[in-house]
Amino acid sequence: MKCLYVLFDADCELCVRCRNWLAQQPAFVPLVFIAFQSDEAQRRFPGIDALKPGEQLLVISDEGAVYRGAHAWIMCLWALENYREHAQRLAHPALLPLAKLVCELLSRNRFFLSDVLFRQEPHNAARKVAAHYGLHKATWANAG
Fold this sequence. Notes:
single chain, about 140 residues, alpha+beta, 7 helices, 4 strands
């Protein structure tokens, strides 16, 4: 494997910041970032919309392997020099369900998180988080 293509949401501040953080890390396998909304994504990966890249992170190896959600995050970490051990640990069958749950929660709430983490004053962000948590508390309590 010579590189991994990371298809990210350029309209999501959380996604862009994660992309920037990943890009700054020393890597064993280079990560090539492509906004899934871009012409380049459509040209490089015809039919990519069938994989619903707007729902979860999508990573494609230069050999054609496709990873979504938690598996995509684990592959990104695996590519990095300082995080490969973490990736291998998260990929363990005992921890993979946790990785999937965290990735699902982040993916489902990424626009909300982008808003409260990066666009709101702290007090307003705290109010929004409290209201959001109250709205979803019963759902989260039943998730386990």
